Amino acid sequence: MTRGAGITRRRFLASITAIGGSALVVETRPWRALVAFAPVSVAERLAGLLTHRDSARVVGKAYLERVPGESVSRLVDRIAAGLPGGRRTVRDASEADLRLLLAASIRSDFEQDRIVEVDGWVLSPTEARLYALAALV
To answer: How far is CA 4 from its chain centroid?
Structure first.
């Protein structure tokens, strides 16, 4: 290419390389992947499993008024205690496996007649604690 053409071969190749590199970065590292490096706490992971988080917060706040001594750490410990492997399971299990384990814990609560009444709702302690976490994190 000549100087009078407006774009040099070097500039053209640099532009193509920059565009190709940008496309590669966008393709392999979407913005969500950059944020994913921030560690998620065990409490956030548990609360994040709830589908209707706003409703859970309302019930969770009512539970916390009824049981004022609860804290995030204490709630996580009590929920994890009902799962095989405890906190390690909460931290390492896949989302699907964790949902199944929590459902089994909730079912076991009801089978063992462990229930909590919160504003007319009959809940298992595991459910109530999950909702309380949603209210706190």
So the answer is: 58
Query: C-alpha distances in angstroms, 29 versus 23, 25, 62, 63?
Result: 10, 5, 41, 41
| Tens-place pLDDT, residues 57-103 | 999 999 999 998 999 999 999 999 999 999 999 999 999 999 999 99
Task: Tell me the angle at which helices 125-136 and 95-111 cross, rounded to the nearest 10 degrees.
Answer: 130
CA distances from 128 to 40, 59, 71, 90 (A): 21, 8, 13, 17
**pTM, full prediction:** 0.71
- Given the structure tokens 């966008």, which residue do they identify? 26
Distance of CA 131 to the CA centre of its chain: 14
